[in-house]
Amino acid sequence: MPLGGAGNAAVLAKLQAVLRKPGNEKCAECFVPDPEWASTNIGVFLCIHCCGVHRRLGVHISQIKSIRLDDKSWTSDMVENLDSVGNTAANEHWARHVPLAYKRPRPDERPDSVLREQWIRAKYERKEFLTESHPAYLCGSRSGLLYKKGKGRNEWKARWFVMNQKEGSLSYFKSRSSDKPLGVITLRQANACFAHDVTGHPNSLQVIAPDGPGADGRTRNIFVYSEAGRDIVEWLVAIRHARLCLLKVTAGDMLTRDFTKAGYLDKTGPTVSNGWRKRWFVLDGRRLRYYGSPLDPFELNDVDIGTTAGGYAVHDGITDARRSAPHHGITLVTPDRSFYLNSNSAHEHQSWLSALRKVVECPVDAMSRTV
Predict the structure, then answer these.
(1) Quick one: how far is CA 313 from the chain centroid?
(2) pLDDT beneath 70, residues of the chain
(3) Assessment of whether the complete model's pTM goes beyond 0.85
(4) Dist. CA 344–CA 243, nearest whole Å
């Protein structure tokens, strides 16, 4: 029964003390600071976004309570369970055997991320990480139906995808019965990341790889989505596991990478007479690519960004006095030429400045060149 008066005040004071214990000051799932929710039966503290996924699991799995809003219904038993378990011990139990290739949600994960949802369901609903099992997505091969972005603006076509770790390939076919693949991606040189922001599909991936042998740096984007969130997450983990085995790396963050930053910027050409054109920019490690639109398969151009010692620099504003930016200018200086960019938002301007400056200030060996 909930306590009242002084008894309830004592329970709430104990709750705040438990919340301050090491490990509890961040969400148990995505590690965002200052969680304001808790699963009283599992014994963990959660952010509002991970709390929403826990609610969807059902009260038979996770019982959610607000630290601030439910102050009158907290009981001493609930607080005692949180005190005896807590985030650190709970993760040592529920995430005991997470495969190195499994991608975990980060503090900056989007609120409705398919990864957040499937991470939590894998932990508590499917109990995937309690034992050293070998789920199907770690067996070295995977096949299934995915919808691939076609040439048309809203064109998505069903394609049969086959991943073969031994061959180091990800192939796609017109149908399951087709003999000849429509395309083959080399996994050693591929990257994959979730693409909800770009495609509008919550269960989508963007796969980036060199555009065939001798591509001379040119890459190709392949966008796919699945009708099931669990399926698309397992596809990503399967790709990461295959790369883990092929590259023989020991750090999970080297298997695939999220883009450092992506968004629209205006760009003008090398001559003063060139006008400003809206382009989709992607900063991927040390490589800055730009496209006509976010879903384009091929970049219009790219810049492999070096360091200040190599003659690269990033300036706030347009350094060429003959030019002027419509709003917030940025100049990216390379040994060959200067790139003049413009952001229509002061916030985005500062964000791009910071991201680009971090690249030129970082030694090349600390930020390896990417696909």
Answers:
(1) 28
(2) 1-7, 212-216, 249-254, 365-371
(3) yes
(4) 39
Least Cα distance to 65 among 107, 106, 11 occurs for: 11
Nearest to 256 by CA among 193, 205, 167, 197: 193
Alpha helices (runs of H) in the chain, residue ranges in sequence order: 5-19, 48-57, 76-84, 86-94, 114-120, 196-199, 229-247, 346-361
Number of other residues whose CB lies within 10 A of the CB of residue 242 = 27
The size of the chain, in residues, is 371
**HSE-CB for 323 with a 13 A CA cutoff:** 26
Is the Cβ–Cβ distance between 152 and 135 less than 8 Å? no
Give me the DSSP letters along 286-299: TEEEEESSTT-SB-
DSSP helix/strand/coil, 324 = coil
Query: Given this model, what pLDDT does residue 175 score?
Result: 97
User: What is residue 26's three-state secondary structure?
Assistant: strand
Residue reference for tokens 């930020």: 367
Kind of pairing between the strands at 313-316 and 301-304: unpaired
